[in-house]
Amino acid sequence: MGTTNLYSLPKLSFDYKDLAPFISEEQLRLHHEKHHAAYVTGANAVLERIDKARKEKTDLDMKSTLKELSFHIGGHALHSLFWGNLAPKGKASERPVGLLATAIDKEFGSFEQFKKEFTQAAVSTEGSGWAALSHCLLTNRPLIMQIEKHNVNVYPMFRILLVLDVWEHAYYLDYKNLRAKFVEAFWNIVNWEEANRRFEDSLK
Ligand code: MN
Question: Do 111 and 78 lie in a common domain?
């Protein structure tokens, strides 16, 4: 094969054990090494299939191929964002910081109100999905998205600032079916500095 650029699994900026007790070492390792890795492998496999079909001049089912690609790329991108907006408790601030803190207060009235709405978005996600705080470049407003699977209900042009994975694979070992407990635990390990860095970057 040629020198096609492919996706790769990013390293975490902390150890697998560092997010305990909110996310256990076993849960985090499995999530990163197996689940996230599967999306990387999946996205690359689709790209290779597309390359091969072009080379051999065979037709692909574009509808199903692109749907699959969107799912895997979405999974890879969201997981990469997720690891980046997590931090061991005590390493990051407990509340939003910088311009993001100001924007959240302005949009939601208070951090508590934002937390309530984001929590509701996460807990009420049907099946597998994500809650995300994003920045709308058209209105300059922070906005919560509820993403189904990895790629449904995503708004184009919105920059994602903070995500929470609420697929069962994200919490089942630690919390069984109690998704709300996992969502509650998440607030202890949010890397607000990173979320603010993404926001300030998006404002440029
Ligand atoms: Mn996941």
Answer: no
